[in-house]
Design brief:
6-stranded parallel sheet, ATP-dependent helicase, 44% helix, helicase, 925 residues, 28 strands, Rossmann fold, alpha/beta
């Protein structure tokens, strides 16, 4: 559209909430791409927002609609509530109406658009959102004089809960737009009748792609999309919708897959991540979280939270655990008359589907003043009335922070308001850096699993079941998926040796061949097929029940279960532990259950055996439930600490406080952080603080417990620290010939051993070589519960263990028993795909081995110095490491007492003169 032309609108000027003659319309060219009926519906529905957007569309819509209209693969990245999903659907609805009008018989009875969502509830929400535009546009078309009504554009939802009768109806009257999940898409690709309905697909929308890319569900989906592409009649336009994520190019390549030459398919990115205004601030209930009594901190916290809720219409409160969400709601109702069951609620994954749906419905309608949640409301439903999000504690990444806070102010033009409240000093520091980096436009990078053999096993089996095909074609499809772009012949042959049961003794363990391979060369070949050339390697399914086994066992979400905990001495049942908690436990670790302390000894299937003990816990109860700190953010915290030390050296606490006031922090947070580092530096020197070029370790002799503790201040996040601690502990145990206990947190880890044993920690670290890291870590995993659990998960995903077979469903506990019987046998097999995938997943996806190799490399190159300090008591930065049971309610008093004791020792060492100076200088700005 020429800048001087007046845009012709399909409605009268006086019907609009703005004057077209005087209003600058920036995106008229985008508007003109739409059919008249679609234009009219859009104006009726969204015209009121034109003055705010300087046009008809939000920034992601302005960018995406023309690209999708042109059939360009597009990744749309924008905050929640900015209209990115509608931008995808609008172009496609517009195309379908156009196509319906142009085709003599209208649209075919088949699928044109697939919408893939990670959540069933999200698919339901989009299903409802589609009805509004489709019904609205159809009404406009029907009302127009002299114009025939267009055919109906059908849409439907299909996932695991869809009834068999509804599935049958979809075959007879097929939706043109089908909403589904990754797992159901994989089933549809192997459904003989319905897969024919997918050959007409021209568009695929992958919603919330950031939540899929980093896990095996995304890996599974990426291969499904390549299988769909291979069978479709024409090219498919892929559209990805994502909240804040980085790097966008990697996520886009994950979305679009590869050409035959291994290069990514063409794509465009619509980057509207910062299209909305954010009002974010960190708050703290006290400027001294050590000396202020716990009950005072709690009382101030709930008072702050209450005031925030009362000042807003609807407030969403995120906590880091499900129990935390319930506790916050309970205490709000106990402490204030303003909250009851009618105006407040709790939402998390452990609640029933009915309870969650009730909360979601009331939240959408604006009937709830406050809802508390853990992670279950990060994605999905629109919440138009939420105008404040409060995050309690650290969400562990900038991406998660923006995703959660983005739930507020669900319209472009509205400011997104978020408050983060920190209740301990480690999280206070973490959140301060996180909020500043969010303001600066920083986002943590996503890590995408590569060459996962268990997912490859499912898809190779699925392709062999769907039809006999050349092996070269099967490999091409697999390698066009981004996670398998570097999938080598060695990995493929290892997988095929498993799938064809080449290994001796495998079938005796009831693990049977799933596919056959043949060179199609009669008379020697077993499987000759005339439609293929002689000598063409082919692949096909084995077994009469292959299709049933595949359909009832595919997917990547692992089953989990609670383990019964029993004492070794009397076989007494003392409670249950979620099995993911066992990932953290080594023999000798102490944990709290039902208020008592237990020492972990061993596990057999679904039973855990322990001894009662009076020793202090080494693993906190929240460990398995909280998300780990992102590695990128951990590196930013180290950089922050380096900058803070420079300012401290230049002007002491006043200079530090002045600098911190440039951050989005309240005054209590500023003073608490400044005080923390002032005490740290006075007590142990600046060298005791880790930075990007220094790894600080403090050695503390605990004569009461008769232990030596090595506090390693590696603020790289729990995943890296889990791997790094295992590596250090493995080497320390070899040198000290003693059991080394490990406790891991996001800001570091602790190695503990008997006081009569000591190791040269600096020498051990200096002797590490990056090329040995992977082998050493692999050796350290042998015999661990972590290895047993992940082997079970991978063996089940690879269909080595069948969850469902001939009507019987094997529970997760039963799967674990089966896997323990298979593990020893499988470990003895050469290059066995399921074992190799188990180690790959643990090392690469769970323990971040690549980042650990980089850290060891930096130490070897002299780029990362190791600083060791011998102390009588932990430094302030190590208080959290020294009291890792901080979140156990039953230990709250013990933990407070321990912190107070550490704190008093630090103050004694600093001396009264320094403290007097500190107090005098606290109000000097």
């Amino acid at each position: 559209m020429d800048g001087n032309e007046r845009l012709e609108l399909p409605v009268a000027d006086d019907a609009l909430p703005f004057d077209p003659a005087t209003t600058a319309i920036e995106d008229g060219d985008v508007f003109e791409l739409l059919e008249p009926a679609v234009q009219e519906w859009w104006l009726e529905e969204f015209g009121e927002f034109v003055p705010e957007n300087e046009g008809f569309f939000t920034p992601p819509q302005q960018g995406a609609i023309p690209k999708i209209h042109d059939g360009t693969n597009t990744l749309v990245c924008a905050p929640t509530g900015s209209g990115k999903t509608m931008s995808s659907f609008l172009s496609i609805i517009n195309y379908l109406y156009e196509r319906d009008r142009e085709e003599p018989d209208g649209l075919e009875n088949s699928v044109y658009c697939l919408y893939v969502s990670p959540l069933k509830s999200l698919a339901n929400d989009i299903h409802r959102n589609l009805e509004v535009p489709l019904e609205g546009i159809e009404e406009i078309v029907a009302e127009r004089d002299g114009e025939e009504s267009m055919g109906e554009i059908r849409h439907a939802i299909r996932h695991g809960d869809t009834s068999s009768s509804d599935r049958q109806k979809m075959l007879e009257e097929t939706p043109h737009i089908l909403n589904t999940t990754p797992e159901t898409l994989a089933i549809l690709l192997n459904s003989p009748k319905f897969r024919e309905k997918l050959r007409t697909v021209e568009y695929v929308i992958v919603d919330e792609i950031h939540s899929l890319a980093a896990g095996k569900r995304g890996t599974h989906l990426s291969v499904s999309l390549e299988r769909l592409e291979a069978m479709a009649e024409g090219a498919i336009t892929r559209i990805g919708c994502s909240a804040t994520i980085e790097p966008l190019s990697r996520v886009a390549e994950f979305l679009v897959g590869c050409e035959a030459n291994g290069e990514p398919r063409d794509y465009e990115i619509v980057d509207a991540r910062f299209a909305r205004e954010f009002d974010m601030r960190l708050e703290c209930p006290a400027d001294d979280l050590i000396n202020t009594p716990r009950e005072v901190v709690q009382e101030r916290f709930y008072r702050m939270l209450h005031e925030h809720i009362q000042e807003h219409t609807n407030t969403l409160v995120f906590t880091n655990t499900r129990s935390g969400a319930e506790r916050v709601l309970h205490n709000l109702r106990e402490d204030f008359d303003a909250y009851d069951e009618d105006n407040s609620g709790c939402h998390h994954g452990s609640l029933s589907k009915e309870v969650r749906q009730d909360i979601e419905s009331r939240l959408k309608d604006g009937d709830l003043d406050v809802v508390t949640s853990s992670t279950s409301l990060e994605l999905g439903i629109d919440m138009p009335h939420v105008d404040l999000v409060v995050q309690v504690g650290s969400p562990k990444s900038v991406a998660a922070l923006l995703q959660r806070i983005g739930r507020a102010g669900h319209r472009v033009g509205q400011t997104v308001t978020g408050r983060v409240i920190a209740l301990d000093r480690d999280e206070l520091l973490e959140c301060a850096v996180m909020l500043k980096k969010a303001e600066d436009g920083f986002v943590d990078s996503v890590s995408i699993p590569e060459n996962a053999q268990d997912v490859a096993a499912q898809h190779v089996y699925g392709m062999a079941i769907a039809e006999i095909r050349p092996e070269a074609e099967l490999k091409r499809i697999l390698r066009r998926a981004y996670p398998y772009r570097n999938y080598g012949e060695a990995e493929y042959e290892s997988l095929m040796r498993y799938l064809t049961a080449e290994y001796a003794g495998l079938e005796e363990k009831n693990v049977y061949a799933k596919v056959w391979r043949d060179e199609n060369d009669p008379p020697d070949g077993q499987h000759h097929h005339e439609e293929f050339p002689v000598g063409e390697p082919l692949i096909g399914k084995r077994g009469r029940l292959a299709r049933v086994i595949y359909m009832t066992n595919i997917g990547t979400i692992p089953d989990s279960f609670a383990c019964d905990v029993k004492t070794r001495a009397s076989d007494e049942w003392v409670g249950q532990l979620d099995e993911s908690y066992l990932d953290t436990l080594e023999k000798g670790d102490v944990f709290v259950l039902g208020g008592d302390h237990f020492e972990y000894r061993y596990r057999r299937g679904s039973k855990v055996y322990v001894d009662r003990t009076s020793a202090r816990p080494t693993v906190p109860s929240w460990y398995s439930e909280r998300l780990p700190l992102s590695y990128d953010l951990g590196c930013e915290i180290l950089a922050f600490q380096g900058e803070l030390l420079e300012r401290y050296a230049a002007g002491g606490p006043p200079r530090v406080r002045a600098w911190l006031r440039e951050f989005p922090l309240d005054d209590d947070s500023v003073r608490a952080i400044a005080r923390l580092f002032d005490y740290q530096c006075q007590y142990a020197g600046a060298e005791s603080v880790s930075t990007t070029d220094r790894l600080s370790i403090e050695v503390v002799r605990d004569r009461e417990e008769y232990e030596r503790h090595y506090y390693v201040h590696s603020a790289y996040g729990r995943k890296v620290n889990d791997g790094l601690s295992r590596l250090f502990a493995y080497r320390c145990a070899q040198e000290a010939t003693a059991n080394v206990r490990v406790a891991v947190a996001d800001n570091g880890f602790v190695l503990s051993m008997p006081l009569n044993r000591k190791v040269d920690i600096e020498g051990i670290i200096a002797d590490l070589a990056a090329e040995d890291v992977r082998d050493d870590l692999r050796a350290s995993l042998s015999g661990t519960d972590l290895l047993q659990r992940y082997f079970r998960i991978n063996a089940t995903r690879a269909l080595m263990i069948l969850k469902r077979y001939k009507g019987y469903e094997k529970s997760a506990a039963e799967q674990q028993v089966s896997s323990e019987m298979l593990l020893g046998f499988a470990e003895d097999l050469e290059e066995f795909a399921v074992i190799e995938e188990t180690y790959r997943e643990i090392l690469e996806d769970k323990l971040n081995v690549s980042e650990i190799e980089d850290i060891v490399d930096a130490i070897d190159a002299g780029e990362l110095a190791v600083s060791r300090r011998l102390l009588d008591s932990p430094t302030p930065r190590a208080f959290g490491l020294a009291t890792l049971s901080a979140s156990d309610v039953v230990l709250a008093e013990d933990e407070s007492a321990a912190l107070q004791s550490f704190h008093e020792h630090v103050l004694e060492e600093i001396g009264e003169e320094s403290l007097a100076g500190l107090t005098a200088g606290s109000e000097d700005e």
